[in-house]
Amino acid sequence: MRNAVIVRKGNVLAPVPAVVFALMIGPILLGLFGTLLPAFGYHPALGATQWSLAAWWALFADPSFATALRITLVTGLGATLMALTIAIGAVAALHNSRAFVYLKLWLAPTLAFPFASFAVGFAFLAAPSGLIARILSPWLTGWQLPPDLLILGDPNGVALLVALTLKECLFLILMLVAAEGQSQGDAALRSAQTMGYVPTRAWLVVMLPQLYPQIRLPVYAVLAASLASVDIAIVLGPAAPPPLAPLTLDWYGQFNAGDQMKAAAASVLQVFLSIGVVALWWLGEHTVGYLFCGIISSGRRHGVIDQAIGWIGVIGAGAALVTATSAILVLLLWSLASSWTWPDALPQAISLSTWRESGATLAPLVGNTVVVAVATSVIATGAAVLVLEAGIGHPQRRQIGILYIPLLLPQISFLFGLQLLWNWLLLDGTLSAVIFTHFLFVLPYVLLVLSEPYRALDPRIAITARALGAGQIRTLMAVKLPLLMRPLAVAAAVGFAVSVGQYLPTVFAGAGRISTLATEAVALASGADRRLAGVVALTLTALPFAALLAALIAPGDRAGDRSASE
Hints:
MetI-like fold
């Protein structure tokens, strides 16, 4: 115990968390401030120096505003509710089954699927001339030509709602699995089953009350992201008008004072919208919790509701995995197709011509994407290690809350103000600005992935090294990091994958001068050249898959692996 106290007193990295969190939160606050000023009429760069509410009146009077707000609320709330229901139902119904083992194996690869690529692949599947219609035509549908159906971009945002649900439910399943691994509820679960509770209800009654508080912040992050999604909304959402976040981005692109300030007002509004919807969700949690207590106290061992939740979860999780896998397949087919006419389910001819012809276009996009992602993941992993070492284990609860701030705020609410900061620092449109902006969103994921393996290290190893005279930095470099090589590789790969998929931060920080695979995939999604879109989206998908695969097969220290798993 005395040695442990000595180690803590010798913590030379103690100020590091405050510095790292300041580097994360400071730019976000400055970005919010830079967005707030134009929202109230102050935008000197465009000659507006009089404070006013004109931007807000223009926003509320805009004919697209009410419809955009409705679509945003319906798709954001609906997708989060459906994704959470599927996640809870899937884990409850499949818990400790062979199918659950396979589900967990597929989670990591499908979660590495960037939103932009997923959206393009989903569009290629669900479009009137997409793969699903081709497989069913004409033998089942009777369609001799692609049907005149508004599936993608429908006015109510149904395609967007479905795609968000299928993508986010896999993330929430992973969060539940991770939380379940840290719980001690297996014995209580077995006891509930021996008392006659069917497996699904036993899990809902015993495990869900323990696990939900641990996944509350990820659920809020999914809710905020669904309300403010841009890349997937541009590809799959309605266009006349689009949801509020893409509509705001359109206004920012008009480059006149009226639209810019109206966009700033819409950005500020989305902050309050996210806060209000999260508060509404919080009230809903307490209402459902109260009702759930009544269900538990009834003593019923089975019921129709839990069976329905289980079936919804199994079907939804299966649909999400099938959709993700099929989306990758259809991207591959379109990238290789030299001729693919309706209604053939497969291309008539396969060729690498599109890959060869797009080489000159693809090379700089891959270069920019890899440079930004590698730099961001390396910096974020290094910062995470220093934060964890300064905390001697893992961040405190309030620090975890701080980490989620970039994920809980709508990106568009502060990226415009952050772009003004980069412009003032003469960094606008540079790789440095893009890397630092990506860092704001990558660090939370890296730190959360790395914190558990770091905490699981046997503390006696560091205490012994310190007792033998090694300082904290030397102990970190010579003892801890070699033991954590594989967790470090996985955390860096996750950071790489998160950075590769960033669309809106690249658009704002890059100022149109830094293009990546994500920005190009979204730009090509609505174009006529599906082959080129398939090439770009498939390349975008391959990068995070390759990074995660390299991290998983990389040689690791056996002692470190064992220590991190205990």
